[in-house]
Amino acid sequence: MRIPFNKPYMTGKELHYIAEAHANGHLAGEGSFTKQCHAWLEASTGAHKALLTHSCTAALEMAAMLIGIEPGDEVIMPAYTFVSTANAFVLRGAVPVFVDIRADTLNIDETKIAAAITPRTKAIVPVHYAGVACEMDTIMAIARRHRLWVVEDAAQAVMSTYKGRALGSIGDLGAYSFHETKNIISGEGGALLVNHPDLVARAEIIREKGTNRSQFFRGQVDKYTWVDIGSSYLPGEIIAAFLWAQIGEADAITRRRTALWDTYHQGLAGLAEAGLIERPRIPEECGYNAHLYYILLPDVERRSALIEALKQHDIYAVFHYIPLHTAPAGLSYGRADYALPITDNIAGRLLRLPLWLGLEAHQAAVIGRIIDALAG
Ligand SMILES: *Cc1c(COP(=O)(O)O)cnc(C)c1O
């Protein structure tokens, strides 16, 4: 039996709600399913305003426009992240300034942020890697002191918290992903959380192609027209209907993922005690969505050997990011003022294990194969 790295989970209600959207006859964005998703996101995160987008990438692009990024502005972020974290700002002419990550959470090292700030710095973009929270109190304090915006890349962090607060709702803006590799999915999809009340009106305009269409539909203006820059960032109702089915099971999905995560953590404890791997560390203040389970091998050779050994048994474990400061576009558009030793080191050693609903029946075999390969 093939054990893929990811297998999108369907609740079984997706087609039911899609049929309902179809019957409603409203297929463009901002229909009843979109509004229900917005209401749930706002209620569950405490965000001032939630807006569905085509993707987390789109939400990050909106964020870059909203905070007024201009050519030459600098944006501080980790290099151990997905390309969209940087691209969204590069598209507005900004320079990503990469700083190193912490060895425990693999999140941006908050103690290294201050040294990266220059007169051109406009924002900090913490990325909650694996759905584990960055040290947000410290990051927010630095941002307030230097008058910088904070845009949370919470793509992996739906249902995760920091000191009881939803990730994505703490910075000025937060971006979620509902891509099929994430916990709660709509195929492609995302949301922008607007936590700063002053940004809401313009967020709606940017999302509606630079028009005041949202105000028009609420009867606040008597015609709608082009008022600002913007693009088409809202998904249609079919996507929102799919997402609504997933939202209905968000707690159950998180519980089942957490159980799978715990099973890996216990099953691999012996390897960690023997010094053959390191396991993830979740700080006390982080409520965790179990987005992914990774292990750290001693070096890239042993990681490649384990990937191969598992593949022999049709089990697919995968590494993660090529750090952005070493990627071709990162070298031309971004900058790292200091060495990033932890980023460089982790990138070669990290391995993500299969984690999807339905893996329960096969997980003992996966753990057994890993133990055989490393300690057999
Ligand atoms: C998945 C991901 C994204 C992009 O999400 P999309 O919805 O595919 O655009 C951005 N940042 C991080 C950290 C991600 O994991």
From TrEMBL:
<keyword id="KW-0663">Pyridoxal phosphate</keyword>
<dbReference type="GO" id="GO:0030170">
    <property type="term" value="F:pyridoxal phosphate binding"/>
</dbReference>
<feature type="active site" description="Proton acceptor">
    <location>
        <position position="182"/>
    </location>
</feature>
<dbReference type="InterPro" id="IPR000653">
    <property type="entry name" value="DegT/StrS_aminotransferase"/>
</dbReference>
<dbReference type="InterPro" id="IPR015424">
    <property type="entry name" value="PyrdxlP-dep_Trfase"/>
</dbReference>
<comment type="similarity">
    <text>Belongs to the DegT/DnrJ/EryC1 family.</text>
</comment>
<protein>
    <submittedName>
        <fullName>dTDP-4-amino-4,6-dideoxygalactose transaminase</fullName>
    </submittedName>
</protein>
<dbReference type="GO" id="GO:0019180">
    <property type="term" value="F:dTDP-4-amino-4,6-dideoxygalactose transaminase activity"/>
</dbReference>
<dbReference type="InterPro" id="IPR012749">
    <property type="entry name" value="WecE-like"/>
</dbReference>
<dbReference type="GO" id="GO:0000271">
    <property type="term" value="P:polysaccharide biosynthetic process"/>
</dbReference>
<dbReference type="Pfam" id="PF01041">
    <property type="entry name" value="DegT_DnrJ_EryC1"/>
</dbReference>
<dbReference type="InterPro" id="IPR015421">
    <property type="entry name" value="PyrdxlP-dep_Trfase_major"/>
</dbReference>
<feature type="modified residue" description="N6-(pyridoxal phosphate)lysine">
    <location>
        <position position="182"/>
    </location>
</feature>
